[in-house]
Amino acid sequence: MDGVTRIGVSLEPELLRDFDRIISKKGYVSRSEAIRDLVRDSLAESEWKNDKERMAGVIVMIYDHHTTGIGEKLTGLQHSKMQHVNTTIHVHLDNDRCMEIMVVEGELGHLKSLANEISSIKGVLRCKLTMASQTSGHMHHIGARY
Ligand code: NI
């Protein structure tokens, strides 16, 4: 490749082992290719600065339904933000855990703060916001407590 600069990266053995395992699962043929994608993703993420941009996406969360008040809190939050929440799918995962998938729409800043509010609720184990811009179509992930 023309104009490519080689860089050296130092990693702890365990981190490198985990990295190699993940990238081989994802089908990368080389570490360089995987690192290039990670850098591109990270750069794309930092470009999402326009909190007024219209987005559509999903918030996927997993929570422990035994946590006191969590059902009421999640329902209350979704009602208070219902201009952004199109629909919610609830899946009972096992005796303890539920998954909820919320289809959301609105300005980037509002969706980010909704996802942050959800991830700060006690009993929420995972919460991830995945969005596409309604203007550019670019996908974006925000892993809050992921
Ligand atoms: Ni459930």
Q: Give the terminus-to-terminus CA distance.
A: 35 Å
Shape: globular
The CATH topology of the largest domain comes to Alpha-Beta Plaits
Bound molecules: nickel (II) ion
The number of strands is 5
Radius of gyration: 18 Å
Query: What is the N-to-C order of secondary-structure elements (H for helix, E for strand)?
Result: HHEHEEHEE
Considering DSSP H and I runs of 4 or more, what fraction of the residues is helical?
25-40%
Structural class: alpha+beta
The tally of structural domains comes to: 2
Number of separate helices: 4
**CATH class bucket of the largest domain:** Alpha Beta
What is the topological layout?
Layout: H1 13-25, H2 31-46, E1 54-64, H3 70-80, E2 85-92, E3 97-107, H4 108-119, E4 124-133, E5 139-144
The structure holds nickel (II) ion (NI).
Question: Can you characterise this structure?
Answer:
There is one protein chain. About 35% of the residues lie in helices and about 30% in strands. The chain is an alpha+beta fold. It folds into two domains: about 15-45; about 55-145, ACT-like. Chain A, domain 2 (Alpha-Beta Plaits, 2-Layer Sandwich), CATH 3.30.70. The model has no long low-confidence stretch (mean pLDDT about 85). Nickel (II) ion (NI) binds next to strand 2.
